[in-house]
UniProtKB/TrEMBL annotation:
Domain of life: Eukaryota
Biased composition (Polar residues): 1-13, 131-142
PDZ domain segment(s): 111-214
Stretch list, region Disordered: 1-26, 110-168
Gene: NAS2
InterPro entries, A to Z: Nas2_N, PDZ, PDZ_6, PDZ_sf, PSMD9
Biased composition (Basic and acidic residues): 110-123
Listed name of the protein: Probable 26S proteasome regulatory subunit p27
Alphabetized UniProt keyword annotations: Chaperone, Proteasome
């Protein structure tokens, strides 16, 4: 990934006095896909920090800031809260536009790869062969159905405990996760959604799509496994693996 730092987000500061943010739609057309993803991460980091500011005052985006008779509340910093809310709204609008641009960039990237493959040998990836998948038992199978939408990896399997549900499903250290149930790159919220999926599916199989390097270390496999979270397997957690965001 390119080393890209957004100067607008490198330092998060919320003024205590009145400030007006004038929203203009940023031009993302000159940024590469890795730069767009870095920008997204920076936006999400600032939104999280701003959310912590609201939490410190014990308020949300909808909490009233006035007393019953219309005066500003004296128990909170009303000016700072208003500035923080304004900045959050500003960044949320940027985030929505940015996610749309990232999605288009992923589509363009995959289309470019497909065209490149056709130019190389006259066949598309779908015509060359089936997509490898892995069954619940860990056995590698094939499927002729390509993914319905681009799914960029968002997490990496760091450890897998022997005999764990993750191990039995076929997950391996180094696997890059593209989908974990309903969690994908655009909504996983620093893996919070992954945790929710695990909690909501105890004893039920979860579809997990991963990228895995081939044994020669040159190619990449697109795999599917089904992991069933459960307690009492003999180790910590209900999956028996450690996953980190990328």
């Amino acid at each position: 990934m390119d080393n890209f730092t957004d100067p607008n987000l490198s330092t998060i500061h919320v003024p205590s006095g009145p400030t007006t943010y004038t929203h203009t739609t940023p031009d993302y057309s000159t940024l590469t896909l890795p730069q767009l993803i870095t920008r997204k991460d920076n936006l999400e980091a600032e939104l999280k920090a701003l959310g912590s500011v609201l939490d410190s005052h014990g308020v949300t985006m909808n909490t009233t800031l006035t007393t019953f008779d219309g005066y500003p509340r004296a128990d909170i910093d009303v000016a700072q809260i208003r500035v923080t809310r304004s900045r959050i709204i500003y960044l949320r609008n940027d985030w929505k536009g940015l996610m749309g641009r990232i999605e288009r960039g992923l589509v363009e990237h995959h289309e470019g790869m497909k065209i490149s493959g056709q130019d190389r040998d006259g066949k598309s990836e779908e015509e060359e062969g089936d997509v490898s998948t892995t069954s619940e038992s860990g056995e590698v199978q094939t499927s002729s159905s390509p993914p319905s939408a681009p799914e960029a990896p968002f997490a990496k399997v760091n450890t897998v405990e022997p005999g764990s549900p993750a191990h039995e499903a076929g997950l391996k250290v180094g696997d890059l996760i593209r989908r974990f149930g309903s969690a994908i790159w655009s909504n996983h919220e620093r893996l919070r959604r992954v945790g929710e999926v695990v909690q909501q599916n105890q004893g039920r199989p979860i579809l997990v799509r991963v990228q895995r390097k081939t044994t020669d270390g040159v190619g990449v496999q697109e795999l599917e496994v089904r992991v069933t979270p459960r307690g009492g397997w003999g180790g910590r957690g209900s999956l028996g693996c450690h996953v980190v965001p990328i």
